[in-house]
Design goal:
Layout (H helix, E strand, L loop, with lengths): L4 H4 L13 H24 L7 H17 L23 E3 L8 E3 L2 H14 L8 E7 L2 E8 L2 E7 L5 E3 L2 H4 L20 E9 L2 H13 L8 H9 L4 H6 L3 E8 L7 H10 L9 E3 L2 H15 L6 E8 L2 H7 L1 E2 L2 E2 L2 E5 L4 E13 L4 E13 L2 E7 L3 H7 L2 E2 L2 E7 L3 E7 L9 E2 L13 E3 L6 E3 L5 H12 L11 H9 L6 H4 L4 H5 L6 H14 L4 H7 L7 H11 L2 H5 L3 H5 L5 H13 L1 H12 L21 E5 L7 H10 L3 E3 L8 E4 L5 H9 L2 E3 L1 H8 L18 H5 L5
Parallel strand pairs: 2-13, 23-24, 23-25, 25-26
Antiparallel strand pairs: 1-6, 3-9, 3-10, 4-5, 4-7, 7-8, 10-13, 11-12, 14-15, 14-18, 15-16, 15-22, 17-20, 18-19, 21-22
Helix pairs in contact: 2-3, 13-14, 18-19
The structure holds 2-(butylsulfanyl)adenosine.
Length: 715
Amino acid sequence: MIMEEKDTIQYKAAELKEGESKESLLREADGLRMQIRHHEYQYYVLDAPEISDAEYDALTNRLRAIEALYPGEVPPDSPTRRPGGYVAPGFTQVKHMVPMLSLGNVYNAEEMGDFDQRVRSLLPPGTDVSYVLEPKIDGLACSLIYENGWLVRAATRGDGEVGENVTTNVRTIKSIPQRLKVPEGEEVPELLDVRGEVYMSRAAFLRLNEERTEAGEAEFANPRNAAAGSLRQLDPAVTARRSLSFFAYYLKGPEEPETQEECLRNLEKYGFTTPEHWCVAHTKEDILKFIEEHDQRRRELAYDTDGAVAKVNAVWQQKLLGATGKDPRWAIAYKYPPEQARTKLEDIVIQVGRTGVLTPAAVLTPVKLSGSTVSRATLHNEDFILEKDIRIGDTVIINKAAEIIPEVLSVVKELRPETAVPFVMPKECPECGWAVARKEGEAAYRCTNPHCPALGREGLIHFASRDAMDIEGCGPAVINQLLDAELVKNPADLYELKEEQLLTLERMGKKSADNLLKAIEKSKQQGLDKLLFALGIRHIGAKGGRLLALHFKTMDALMNATTEELAGIKDIGAVIAESVVTWFANPLNRELVERLQKAGLTMEMQALTVNESHPFFGKTMVFTGTLPTLDRATAQTMAQDVGAKVSGSVSKKTDYVVAGEEAGSKLDKAQKLGVTVIDEAEFLRLLGGGEVADESTAPSAEEGNLFAGLAEEKP
Ligand code: IVH
């Protein structure tokens, strides 16, 4: 909904009260600049904001209001004069070809109208003005430089002039082409600067936080911080593991598009993903309509958008309008009000998860928030509650972190009743009464009972979930019913369920029972990777399951693997190895696996269907050197899965050499023989069905090939 002015007053430029002296205002401005710098550092460098975007905006708006009164007193380095952003130590710096601008913000219909008015007043009278409306993706801006069609450099915005060189990390993002797709007959642009937003989907964000909690690491506050933290990683292997995506919205090259519309179309043509929803608007009303529609739609999107961006469509008009300091005059961001609500914290309850972690949750007086009624919110862990000094009986402000999970933001201390009760973590597990313990260096308390009933229940819910065995219709409610009726105790019991048993459950008709049985049957084909993830072995996430399945191929082989063997696999490491061996050493777990096997579950890695038109089908490939993210055996298996022959030595018959770091004589030989040499990124791209580079434009083997691209040289 578009907010009326009165609703957004707290986020708007703070009005100056009468009687405030110049001296006190200037002092306040100084204080604000310090605060803003502190928060920018938290946000941009540490990826750990202490305040919400709205609170940050309120600070800068207040500062702007004061500076507008005394423009002569604004220091040149005021945060209002340059994009907030820093280059973090550890990255090399890249100067942007064209400065990377930020965007001014508006918060309501009236301010949007003012923007439209100003644009029209600055253009020649009678100019036909149209706008492109796009969602404002909540991620971080990135500039990608393509030379002769090849991605050679990627940089974050940094301070707008100079950014961080994140090329290697960006190469691991699947939606960013390593090479532009250029339609036949069209010339490959010599130089192109593509800009857009690197973001993390909500699902990937939730998964990442789950893994971090499990590993005793701090959670990311929202997908934006998670994306920034993942892209600005000194170890690209870490970036590669976290799924990041990219939406492109800007392109600059020798041949300029005439409009923003054309720019988006060109980006699509070159193989980029552009924002899913955008439109052309001719009037203020059209603009507001898109903003309203997008507000309705954005909750259902797989990623966060925190507003909409209006951009003057015609590039000649953009140029005429120019920029003020860090913001273009031809574009503006409409920010949706942050969804927050005030309510009473009635109680704090403890939930026990499938790994035995105790998570405190707030029981709230039900309140409306972003279109739904919220009565629970996460409190993360003991430290979170103590830091925010949250007490039972307090009035709290909640919001939706990542627009999905409600979270307690802060306490309204003035409203604290005398009877408010500070939180104490229970000493015993609320599910089974066993002692709880907190390991040094971890934020989480865990139940020490290996047979805690919560583990069974949450383990079953996890087993049946989408990313695991994907048993449709077998969500938490059904699992709880099955447990209450004592029809199942562990995952193997699911496969012995009979229709008559299901029919005894409440609200379970014949049709649902049939569907459930069909879904259970179908899940038997999920394959070893999903099954390993589903079993809930500590530290084995979806990726771990896949790595193990790829390496061992069968459950039997994995069950008999030693710790040393496991720890030797890249990306597995000692902790996971130990955890796997311990799990299989438990006779109860072995029995479970045996029962699942008898029930007919596939205990092998699903063979990928071999597609004869795959670029690697029938090709002879040699792997050499250390690859940045994959271990060699995994990479070889991946190639074999699509029909490649893997060989140990390079000859004239070799089709591809996949070379990593410190590739020695094999790489030399390949270059001498003129064999195509590719790096891991290209290998993965082709593996995923990407097109093979056309010989005439691809750098040749003699020049060091794609390999050189990684070293940031012109291919
Ligand atoms: S255009 C000169 N379009 O919002 C134009 N920015 O608050 C500059 N953003 O730095 C950017 N979605 O990181 C543009 N569709 C979109 C956007 C977008 C998200 C980000 C971008 C920018 C920030 C400004």
